[in-house]
Structure prediction request, 832 residues.
Amino acid sequence: MQQIRVLIAKPGLDGHDRGALVIAQGLRDQGMEVIYTGLRQTPEQIVDTAIQEDVSCIGLSSLSGAHMELFPEVVRVLRERQADDILVIGGGVIPEADIPALQAAGIAMVFTPGTRIEDVASFIRSHVRLRDLADVPPVEPVAKQVDHIGIAVRSIAEALPFYTRHLGLTVDHDEIIPDQKVRAVFVRAGDLHLELLEPTSPDSPIAQFLDKRGPGLHHVAYRVDDIDRALEALKEAGVRLIDERPRPGGLGKRIAFIHPKEAHGVLTEYCQRTGEAAE
Amino acid sequence: MANLDERTRAWQERVERSLEQRPERKERFVNGSDIPIQRLYTPRDGVQTEEEYLEKLGFPGEYPYTRGIQPTMYRGRHWTMRQYAGFGSAEQTNQRFRYLLEQGQTGLSTAFDLPTQIGYDADHPMARGEVGKVGVSISSLADMQTLLQGIPLDRVSTSMTINAPASILLAMYLVVAEQQGVPWDKVSGTIQNDILKEYAARGTYIFPPKPSMRLITDIFEFCSKEVPHWNTISISGYHIREAGSTAVQEVAFTLSNAIAYVQAAIDKGLEVDEFAPRLSFFFNAHNDFFEEIAKFRAARRMWAKIMRDRFGAKSPRAQQLRFHTQTAGSTLTAQQPDNNVVRVTVQAMAAILGGTQSLHTNARDEALALPTEESARLALRTQQILAYESGLTDTVDPLGGSYYVEALTDAIEEAAWKYINYIDQLGGAVAAIEQGYIQQEIRRAAYDTQMAIERGDQVVVGVNRFTVEQERQPELLRVDPNIGRVQAERLAKLRAERAQEPVREALADLRAAAEGTANLMPKIIQAVRVYATLGEICDTLRQVFGEYRPAVF
Prediction:
């Protein structure tokens, strides 16, 4: 994983930088890359440095009582520069009563005297992580949308009325998929389908699923434009696949399954619509 | 004494044997300065012979002043109880001053806000959010007049924590005294005026070191002639310690800075016995009771040696280290704030047993905000209880001769000399600061302390041990958030109403003097008198001197 970059900044005229320096060193020892602004920084200067240095977190320190004016100002300038995805945290001599207002102004967390560096580091890690991950742009958007959600049932005849009668959905398609030994009924729900899956043979993968886990959510399928390339990309990235090559699915689609471990317990499917089924 | 050595050895052996059953709490005992602490001190430690007593300790009021600078110390008069105060507007601080004087405080100590300390008027963009926060906002003589309203300057001595613009605030004070009809040779007080520790630890510098040293020595020269009872500098270890240094570093870096000031004054042609009696010091009183007491005693002895042997000072006053003490703000905890009263008491006792000339005791709520009136009073009461009820004050240097305290005094002195010698090798304090040496030493010590606390090796009651689930939130002092706007409006009015020509003239005069070598004090006094603002005066000097930009180490 990439090193988290943090800017430790002293807004205003306050010269007490013991805390700022200790935190800077401590976060470095926690494996982060830390830039320290030095004293007497205006909110504008702090935001400039943060953007130039491409940090994911700004830590503001003030012991002079100017935090109510200067901390929110940093967040405001970040928004103005469209850089408000940078996590902002603060510390110093800050009365408990001021903290809710600072949080409302966009300071994610305020650390008061006596805080352990480890706690600051883990806060930063857990809060910039999402941003970092979301930040990695895919080479091209692969999954266009959810194509369908597969639901394993023991009997379509028994399961279907819930969707039609109570949810008021309609059946689009009904077919036997010999490759998977299932009968699949596609129920339209807005832009996507629910695919009710009933085993046609005791050695069907769906039968095994039902034996082990009972009826319920079976898989989520994402629509891709080019399933061969999409699978190739996953293989290169070391993602575990169930199907290395596409195979025929319902509605004439070409499908492939990705190992559920990769999606933290969700069986994931890629599917590509072919000419006959394209809408 | 052979008997003593034998019995000591036998005792040690017995103890060592019993350690297997009853081990000590730690394998190794060391203090914050990394000085090992023995299990026991005996007559073999510290001062042993009469010759050694006379050489190392002597008598109170006599060289090397280890036992105190006055012969009778607190039997004659208690230390000055001087609580640092200031916030918001000059009116508010004036009220707090009068309150403290009514409560029995014996001297004033002024806290200025950061814009004032860094030479910005209250309406400067850099002052945003900072006006009146950590001290009183003073932008012109008019504010100083309000601040000192009704306070008799011939009877009350005032300490001002002001450094880079010290000349300007002193000038304002002198003009107000003049307007009260008090001649300058009757006013007394202190300006901090210690720029070197600003670069090293506190951060309120304006100008680069060279012109800053000139401003300081100009004050030395001016006051030795015009304001003879003014303490022209308070060379401060306090902030060095607050920034994280050890006790040994505090002594060493402070005395190194002091050496630099004395040298600068001598280089300017001033006579050491004339200006040195007005030098004073400011130290921190931290948690380790005996280490602190030993620190104060070591500092006194070292300064006497430095002044006599290094600078050839003959006047006793020039050899005496007089100091103010403040209890350690950095030891106060936001958690269970009432615990701080106990910490402050222990620290204050160390300062008293160390022979301080004046004392500020911190208030319990200072890790949370500026003190409320109630907690400021409790802090003052702490001193009064120690002074009037504890008996600490009935004899001079009660711990003199303690095996432990004397051994520790020697150990601190020895370790501090090593630093001072090394700083001399680097080219003195100014060079050591420019090279970042002092900053890095402080930073390392600060980090070590933090790590020791996080590991739990260093216990902070209420923080990493003996914590409570629900902290009760005390009432805190809130500074009026409108103070910045109010001050700005007041300043605009002043600038509009004053006579402009004299201001222009005074500033032009000041500029010309700054470009040359004349003493700047008379020019600054003139500018202040015609209501030139602090910011205008500092800007004039900034144009000539430039501004200090620290390297980031």
In short: The radius of gyration of chain A is 27 Å. Chain A has two domains: 5-135, 145-272. The first helix of chain A runs from residue 18 to 29.
